[in-house]
Amino acid sequence: MVLLKFSSDVGSDDGGDVSSKKQNKALLTPLIQLHPLPSEDGLLIKIQPPKEPKDHQLGHVPCDIVLCIDVSGSMGASAPVPELAGEAQEDFGLSVLDLVKHAARTIVETLDSRDRLGIVTFASGSKVLQPLIPMTTFNKAMTLMRIDEMRPLTATNLWHGIRDGLGLFGEAEAGSDGRVPALLVLTDGAPNFCCPHQGYIPMLRTMESLPATIHTFGFGYSLRSGLLKSIAAVSGGNYSFIPDAGMIGTAFIHAVANLQSTFANKATLRLTYPSFLDLEETTGDSVEKQAPVKLGGDVPQTLSQLTILLGNLQYGQSRDIYLRYGGTGKASLKLEAGARPEPIVTAILEYQHFTPTIHSAVTHQNILGSHPPLDPAEIAYHVSRSALISFLSSLFPLKPNGEHDTFHPLPPDLLIRVQLKSLARSLPAFNAKFLSCHEGCRSLFYDLCGSTIPFTAVTTATPNPEEWTGQIALGLTNGTYYTRWGRHYLPSLAGAHARQVCNSFKDAGPRIYGADSPLFIACRDRLDRAFDALPAPTPSLLPGAQGAHDDFVLRDACRHRRPGGVIGLVGIGHSSIGRQLSMKYYNDPNGACFAGCAMVALAGGIMNGKEKGSLVRVGRLRRGMSVLTPRGPRRVVTVLRTAVRRAGICLVGGSGAGSSAKGGVNAGLWVTPWHPVFIDGAWRFPADVAKRSARYTGSVYSVLLERDDDAEAHAILVDGMWAVTLGHGLVDGGEGEDAIKHNQQIPNNHFRKDWQRRVRCHFDQPGKKVTRRLARRAKAAAVAPRPVDKLRPIVRCPTIKYNRRTRLGRGFSLAELKAAGIPKLLAPTIGIAVDPRRQNLSEESLAINVQRLKEYKARLIVFPRKSNKPKKGDTPKDQQTAETTQSIRATFGVEQPVAPGFSEISKSDMPKGVEGGAYKALRKARSDARLVGVREKRAKDKAEAETAKK
Predict the structure, then answer these.
(1) Would you state the torsion angle of the CA atoms of residues 684, 687, 691, 694, taken in this order, to the nearest 10 degrees?
(2) pLDDT at 614
(3) Distance between CA atoms of 918 and 939, rounded to whole angstroms?
(4) For position 758, what pLDDT does the model report?
(5) Domain ranges of the chain
(6) Helix (H/G/I), strand (E/B), else coil: 164
(7) Does pTM surpass 0.90?
(8) CATH 3.40.50.410 matches 63-80+88-260+518-533
(9) At what angle do helices 518-533 and 248-260 cross, to 10 degrees?
């Protein structure tokens, strides 16, 4: 295998620097504090990681990220921009998958050679597009190419996607030390194929220690959000709900920023305490929650141990856990106040720095001893946060298979309002004194009640939750909101509060997390800038189109049309064009019109062997044929065919129940969106009245009829509907209605007769251009990491005229190879082109090409066939990690030499122009040269004449 380095020092950052950073980071230890509450009803545990890494120059923590992306058919659905107040919703033709790919490109752009990225897609099956590879410059380009090639397919096999995504970490385990492992799963629907019989959570638990945290993202409103939350929770990850296209970017940005600011992973808190305290968690049921266990042995008092799984810890963001004394714990504590031994709580924090090594931090606290007081507002905030999480968790109870039941019915409206009132009044954070001075307390108030509600509103005698504008209240008091987005959003919000992670710019509560982490803020801002700076994704849909496979289905349907004009269209979703634009911008009488499967009605009589009243495909119309118009028969002047690829077309008219060759019920007309048709008594654009929209690949046809001053004579009957032809004369009449005006859009037509017989047209040039580009990419991917071309010599162009120029030759001569010390049989195997027929006719060309070979040889990387048995000439192992180039020609280009004897001078050094102009000066010089004899003779004669006079 042959690789080329960009420079000799590339890749040096991947050696000692990374290991030293890991060693420095391992020296940092989180701080653990135990705070018995003054109310003597519980215990607050604060785990404070370092604010930032010791190495302040560290741009981000290296990560191993696997993107597990749903490419089922529904991912091809339209993703319009969220509707703003007072503005119409805009649809730019982007699908959900287009935006997900854009977010994936953002992640790729912010990674460097210390990070690795893998890609898995899943539909009816899963496919590993890319294993975990370092994000070098070359690998980034290959990754972006693989992301671009994603296309919507069929079903949703979530389990295989997760399984294969986790499998990539096992395959790359040898080089994963020092990187944060994470699997990012995005889906827009419920899994419907190959689901585990025993359930997802039991299957994940059989894997024992998962190699990475799983972070799930649910897009849209057709989700099993309870399953996504449970999958994330069981692995220590986070679940994020993405309601619309406007949230895709912020969800991915915050998820990756949290990963890039991770201090430790697989953190676990173990508390050992006297059993009579009966400590219990206060955040409700969760799939990762573990029950306390009693410890045996010869100890003075019965001890219990509670294990709390914390997952990842972020730099600068504390983890605060409020535990309550359960049952008679509070009373027992008072009884034991004078007893011995004292009630000691021991907290052991175990965590990893992305390596198998387990680090720990230990602290002890006497519950009855003296301790530094905490801010009452902070205590109120954490107690209220836990109560809010518990309330939200109670709405989505756990099922026996470990999945949260988001389809669990809400309590009656009256009861839910009573519960919200009771919750608001019971939260200590909603005290007006705390709300005015503590940002965390205010954020909880905004989440529940909204920013427009006065702080004192919830403490009055008659608070009304239906007037609250907080997202929690809106999602619970309105049944429509709850069914549409509340049951998906509330589990995501509860998870963000429980793990204290910022998952979006939107919600006030999670937004305060990470505010004290400089590394998180820097990573988030960098990702945000990258997301906005990247070129906008190319739309894959006609604005408003639904369904990702319409182009394929329609193409096949038009190609295999059934007798009688029926088009077999299976699986095309109903939709209308979502973006209503002014018709005057789309009145294009010269645009292409009908799909190739359209049937045109001929005029009466016999024409070219066609019987009276028969139908003919629009592609079979020819010059001179007579078609039916509202003003009688008209002859065809020209039929214009245009090749298109994935062009947007619309279905208008018809009942979809079949068709009749005699003008009866038909399946409708497939026509371009802005080509007027006569429907419901008026001329309308198909975009405004479309029943369906689709992508079409093939030929579309336009028809030009003979000239007529009557505009209605420029319409034909196509698939049972009147549609205009070229030069129709329909223009905008104002207020969205068309008017009949002049008929001079095509003043003259000089079309050659029967030109198709004498020329061969290549209409699919754009398509072939795409094909060639994809072929080049496929070749580069197939030979990677080898370059796609070979090293060639620099030679002079033939002929005297071009001999001063240089270009790449066919191959190096044998003399050049010998002078460079490269055997002629070895050269072709290491990417060097050889031409044994070529001779060196000058020492200059020989020296240039020998030097070219030596430079190539110095930057060459030759991998041994067997890594454990290197041979002579193979590159040492420590030099095999350099970045590579994809094109030798780009690295070893051809520089045009400056011809000897010539030097470049500035304009000021050039001689001044000839007075009067060069033309006059040259003409005068030629005249002087031609008339020199005549003038001499004339002067001589004149002199002799003057002498004779004397």
Answers:
(1) 140
(2) 73
(3) 28
(4) 63
(5) 30-55+265-374, 63-80+88-260+518-533, 376-499, 550-751, 768-891
(6) helix
(7) no
(8) yes
(9) 140
Sign of CA dihedral 514, 517, 523, 526: positive
SS3 50: coil
Burial 750-777 (b: 16+ CB within 10 A, else e): eeeeeeeeeeeeeebeeeeeeeeeeeeb
Sign of CA dihedral 237, 378, 493, 253: negative
CA distance 619 to 596: 6
3-state secondary structure of 736: coil
Closest CA to 763 of 687, 699, 697: 699
The domain 550-751 is placed in CATH, from the list 3.40.50.720, 3.40.50.261, 3.40.190.10, 2.170.16.10, at 2.170.16.10
What does the alpha-carbon distance between residue 322 and residue 882 come to, in Å, rounded to a whole number? 50
The answer to whether residues 412 and 482 touch, using CB atoms and an 8 Å cutoff, is no
DSSP 351-376: EESSSSPEEEEEEEEETTS--PPPPH
Contact criterion met (CB below 8 Å) for 153 and 190:
no
What residues contact 834, with CB distance under 8 A and at least 6 apart? 811, 812, 814, 817, 824, 827, 828
- Rounded to 5 degrees, what angle do the CA atoms 237, 240, 244 make? 160
Copy the structure tokens of residue 324: 């309550």
pLDDT of 433 reads 86
Counted residue by residue, the chain has a size of 950
Closest listed residue to residue 390, CA positions, set 289, 268, 475, 458:
289
Spatial contact of 341 and 353, defined as CB atoms under 8 Å apart? no
Buried b (16+ CB within 10 A) or exposed e, 352-361: ebbeeeebee
C-alpha–C-alpha distance, residues 557 and 692, integer Å: 15
d(CA 379, CA 446): 18
CA angle 743, 745, 751 (to 5 degrees): 110
Q: How far apart are CA 186 and CA 342, in angstroms?
A: 51
> 295 near 275, Cβ under 8 Å?
no
Residue 114 has which token pair?
A: 């210390």
Write out the two tokens for 17.
């620097």
Q: What is the CA radius of gyration of the chain?
A: 39
Whose tokens are 């070098």? That residue is 136
Residue at 702: amino acid letter: S
pLDDT digits (tens, 9 = 90+) for 205-245: 888 788 899 999 988 888 888 899 999 999 899 999 988 77
Which phi and psi angles does 701 have, rounded to 5°? Answer: -125, 145
Q: Give the pLDDT score at 334.
A: 52
d(Cα 625, Cα 617) in Å, to the nearest integer? 12
- Tokens read off for 294: 């009693």
Cβ atoms of 113 and 14 within 8 Å: the answer is yes
What are the backbone dihedrals phi and psi of residue 164, each rounded to the nearest 5 degrees, phi first?
-70, -30
Separate counts of helices (H) and strands (E) for the chain: 25, 32
The answer to whether residues 682 and 639 touch, using CB atoms and an 8 Å cutoff, is no
- The predicted-structure confidence for 476-497, as pLDDT tens digits, reads as follows 888 888 888 888 899 999 999 9
pLDDT value, residue 184: 94
Contact 6, 785 (CB under 8 A): no
Residue with tokens 């690795």: 116
- DSSP bridge partners of 116: 64, 134
Which amino acid appears at position 586 of this protein?
Answer: Y
What local confidence, expressed as pLDDT, does residue 669 receive?
A: 86
What stretches in the chain show pLDDT beneath 70?
Answer: 1-27, 40, 56-57, 79-92, 172-176, 297-301, 327-341, 459-463, 541-592, 604-613, 655-666, 727-759, 878-883, 896-904
Which H or E run includes 2? strand 2-4
For residue 876, give the 3-state DSSP assignment: coil
Q: What kind of fold does domain 30-55+265-374 have according to CATH? A: Immunoglobulin-like (2.60.40)
Query: What would the pLDDT profile of 790-821 be if each residue is shown by its tens digit?
Result: 999 999 999 888 888 899 999 999 999 999 99
